[in-house]
Amino acid sequence: xxxxxxxxxxxxxxxxxxxxxxxxxxxxxxxxxxxxxxxxxxxxxxxxxxxxxxxxxxxxxxxxxxxxxxxxxxxxxxxxxxxxxxxxxxxxxxxxxxxxxxxxxxxxxxxxxxxxxxxxxxxxxxxxxxxxxxxxxxxxxxxxxxxxxxxxxxxxxxxxxxxxxxxxxxxxxxxxxxxxxxxxxxxxxxxxxxxxxxxxxxxxxxxxxxxxxxxxxxxxxxxxxx
Length: 226
Known about the structure:
It is built from eleven helices and no strands. By secondary structure, it is mainly α. It has a domain at 94-225: Tetracycline Repressor, domain 2. α6 packs across α7 (112-128), α6 packs parallel to α9 and α7 (112-128) runs parallel beside α10 (186-205). The relative contact order is 0.09.
């Protein structure tokens, strides 16, 4: 290194100036090159979500996650944090992707009654889909609440509250249009629907056949009409 520096000093001042400028531009050019991600973080997170959804928090080990995500333990820690932090990130993803998709059934329906029915039918279809694990990740996680710390329990409660408020908002809009009796308590109706969503998933996981679950969904919607 000393010889290289000494060699440069032997050049005339003009040449040394060009060498210095070239070196600076080389360094800036290298720093400007974006780092290429070694993996798709969102796709890997979706995979982790399916693992937790299928096995539960306690039943999922880092080895299960490493194998499914195709990542080393250090890569998982660097990208998502520890197992608890990764789990909470998958809860957020489930809320946005799964619950978000289910709630669209209400938004796209011609009436609130049709929307609520479509929502419950979509919940049933979700359980029987070959693309996703059985049951509801949130409902199943709440059932194993004793395994979670305060942060995770709060996140699960917030998720249920968010879904309930979203459904209630649609019901209130329907009341203003005259589609639902104004005497009905919108918060109670929304809570009943959310409990029905969880209950349908639990019954489906327990082996209740799809035809019976559809009948339960239809009966519930009719009860809300009265």
